[in-house]
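Hey L., structure's done. Input below.
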Amino acid sequence: MSKLTKNQKSVADKVEAGKAYSLKEAAELVKEITTTKFDASLDIDVRLGVDPRKANQMVRGVVTLPNGTGKVTRVLCLCTPDAEAAAKEAGADYVGLDEYIEKIKGGWTDVDVIITMPSCMGKVGLVGRILGPRGLMPNPKSGTVTMDVAKAVKDIKQGKIDFKVDKAGIIHSSIGKVSFTPEQIYGNAKEFIQTVIKLKPAAAKGTYIKSIFISSTMSKGIKIDPKSVE
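Output:
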């Protein structure tokens, strides 16, 4: 078993085992217990009382974090020539269609989000087997297949993210950086959790939000009292 570093020892007792903190307390505490020298990511895990194997209990959505994600999101916009200028102006890092489809066929996927138009999905579908496993396939439900590609690009750059529950009934997502202020962390986490709450499926029975944890890269998870978010 590896030994705790000096910094890890200094924060080891700051999180009480089994205690559920308010979201505001957790937003402050997660900064205190992060000892990494780099600007660590802030992650949130929400365990839901749903059965994701059933289509009517699948939870998936999008949310725009009020304080952004804290990281640079590389966006590829696959669109028709008439939409290229607007996409570039909105901040897309790469804009085009056929040339990028060929690059992807060759193995290039050095982007974080791909946005496209309905009329281009036929060509995008040709590289679906490459994009799908990497989580890059555009999807109308996440707003990445749209006629207004410029707005989609702008939204992504400003902090719009998509999420969905996994097979274990848990939603994992990054909601910022540890360099954020406690107020920014609180604002992003609250917006994320409230969005998940609004997406409760009608078919879900019993307790919907089973647990919420927030953590930074390599830090302990901090349990959050769901009632502190409502």
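The first strand starts at residue 41 and ends at 48. The CA atoms of residues 74 and 226 lie 33 Å apart.

-- N.
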